[in-house]
Q: What sequence folds into this?
């Protein structure tokens, strides 16, 4: 019997093999290979190259990287063998999701043997995960899975349909339960796809809910740039090169003001518990700034607020439009009360000083917050960790 | 007022600019740029490279391409200017979605200035769309958008949850209507994500429904490799290099037999019309083979059958298991009746002869089909076109 199965498999394989061949560009090697001891091997075939390096966010001496490749990352030299295969094995790496590119004679290039790339703004990077720790939360594990979907909500504010990423928890389809909602906002240059790619929000929620560490919840990830309907490549702008001039030219305040349309859409189309105790909002960088202002503008709407690597106090911006009544709004928010106002930032973050100012403003109005200071800069490693810490604190009362 | 808006934008931009910089690897040029006359310009900065070429499926002389890059495609030479920028502008291209890579001194590499890449099996390719014709169907246009989601269905057959891609038509969330369902199957080496990336199935349906050319329908795209729970990177196998040995080692027949679990899940969880007149099934290559067998095994289940670039008559496979009663099953299918059995294949397809055999088998049992012969080989260009032609014929009675 085994032989027959083998033969039939062989027949199938042979018959359809060409189905793939229009695309097979990979070299016949594996890269990046994560070993059980958390070392990682990179391989790249380029017999004629003079110099090949790995630019990755796991490498030290970040500031010495002269290449645009993965800025804020270090460069590690690879070694060529007699077959023209360049190799590098790292020292053991901390459990984490990492990103990298190769730098071939000075030109940044994706690893052709690693088909896993995520896009951020106008660039793709290869990714890999080192498990055996924190990174396990960023992998798909043998736990029940929630559903990720991309509905479009009608936005009168922008005159368009706008694309969302929505996570519904495991069992949502089958059951009749109503759920709390976390609105999770991306940073400048990002879009509705970012928290579920680099951010690993889907995996984090699946894993935390699976372990019983977070309550089952719906997570809504909108696009915070009102000048965009949807992520690059998913909108009527087609396959253009993302640029700040083109698709991030937002009118300040428009996203915050238009946010009601998102809440309305979610509460009309999903089984949610539509009250303050079951609404949370959080965001990173620009999304943290959005969070500060949305959570105070929408009075008595959110019981849980998360501000990751951000600030609420842009002096120039604060002078105008919805930002004018900034302090007054915070005071009102304090009076209305809430369960958690969680602020986290890394000591290497370029917004660190601005975050100090922001907290002073909160102190001035007497708004109580939880402050968490960590290592790290303005990077995804930090934001994934914050989400992993933040979500278990939600909807516990 | 304008000045103030500008200033605030400037402040926002400056403040959050660094949010992106951990990832900015792109060179400060655009590529691939599609011009109004359908010519396309590629650009790549590599001052030290000796030779840079574009490997794309729009280039002629496919067979002369010696590189693994995009097999089945031609190579076009680029020209270097005094700044080390390599450039190529094509002649006007037919309206279509194309894929390409650069070949830099013999090494295939993704275009660092085009963040749009799709993965097929173990490789990524850059993509772009030339509009003004057929290709417009593959773009997001200003029409109402359906929702793409990724639920997981419980599969007793495999003992796992397995990931689906599901398209629900515009208005599904709001309304109470019930819809017909098209089950759309991928080819060997593919997964549940392929029809919605390379296949542009989402855009095709949005556009055809928007123009009133196709009926609003739900489209279900499962993973046809039972050895996989989900597409590479979306399963518990992590970020591995896809390989036929690892994740395509299916037991022949398992997918077809297990298909009932998919129908059951869809009919239990979506607003569908659960009868034969409102069920269609179609697939490309291996998915066409699956379609042939599922549509005859599940008696009286599907009124619409689409076999794209495929065959049903694998002699060796047909000798065993569910394939043993192949002809008998077809006869039963004929007796039960159906609305449409649509077969299409390109004259350059490596399965062309096998498709002739397959049609002879159908003739033998007197099963009537519509046969469409086109240009082209075993490639996505052909399959997108077939889907564009097939879906308007569905659910019309």
A:
């Amino acid at each position: 019997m085994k032989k027959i199965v083998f033969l039939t498999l062989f027949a199938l394989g042979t018959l359809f093999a060409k189905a793939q061949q229009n695309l097979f560009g990979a070299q016949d090697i594996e890269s990046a290979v994560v070993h059980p001891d958390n070392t990682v091997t990179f391989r790249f075939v380029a017999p004629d190259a003079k110099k090949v390096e790995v630019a990755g966010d796991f490498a030290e001496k970040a500031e010495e990287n002269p290449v645009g490749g993965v800025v804020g990352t270090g460069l590690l030299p690879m070694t060529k063998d007699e077959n023209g295969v360049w190799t590098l094995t790292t020292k053991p790496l901390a459990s984490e999701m990492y990103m990298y590119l190769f730098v071939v004679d000075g030109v940044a290039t994706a690893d052709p043997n690693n088909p896993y790339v995520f896009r951020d703004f106008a660039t793709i990077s290869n990714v890999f995960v080192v498990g055996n720790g924190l990174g396990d939360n960023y992998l798909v594990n043998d736990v029940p899975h929630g559903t990720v979907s991309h509905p479009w909500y009608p936005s009168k504010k922008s005159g368009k349909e706008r694309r969302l990423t929505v996570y519904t928890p495991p069992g949502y389809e089958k059951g009749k339960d109503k759920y709390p909602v976390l609105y999770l906002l991306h940073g400048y240059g990002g879009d509705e796809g970012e928290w579920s790619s680099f951010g690993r929000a889907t995996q984090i929620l699946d894993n935390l809910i699976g372990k019983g560490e977070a309550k089952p919840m719906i997570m809504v990830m909108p696009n915070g740039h009102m000048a965009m309907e949807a992520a690059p490549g998913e909108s009527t702008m087609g396959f253009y090169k993302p640029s700040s001039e083109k698709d991030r030219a937002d009118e300040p305040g428009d996203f915050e003001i238009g946010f009601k349309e998102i809440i309305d859409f979610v509460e009309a189309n999903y089984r949610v518990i539509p009250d303050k105790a079951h609404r949370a909002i959080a965001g990173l960088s620009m999304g943290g700034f959005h969070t500060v202002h949305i959570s105070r503008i929408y009075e008595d709407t959110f019981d849980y607020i998360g501000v990751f690597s951000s600030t609420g106090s842009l002096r120039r911006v604060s002078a105008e439009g919805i930002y004018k009544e900034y302090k007054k709004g915070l005071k009102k928010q304090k009076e209305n009360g809430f369960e958690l106002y969680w602020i986290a930032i890394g000591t290497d973050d370029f917004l660190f000083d601005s975050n100090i100012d922001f907290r002073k403003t909160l102190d001035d109005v007497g708004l109580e917050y939880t402050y968490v200071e960590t290592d790290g800069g303005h990077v995804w490693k930090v934001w994934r960790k914050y989400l992993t810490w933040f979500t278990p604190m939600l909807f516990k009362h």
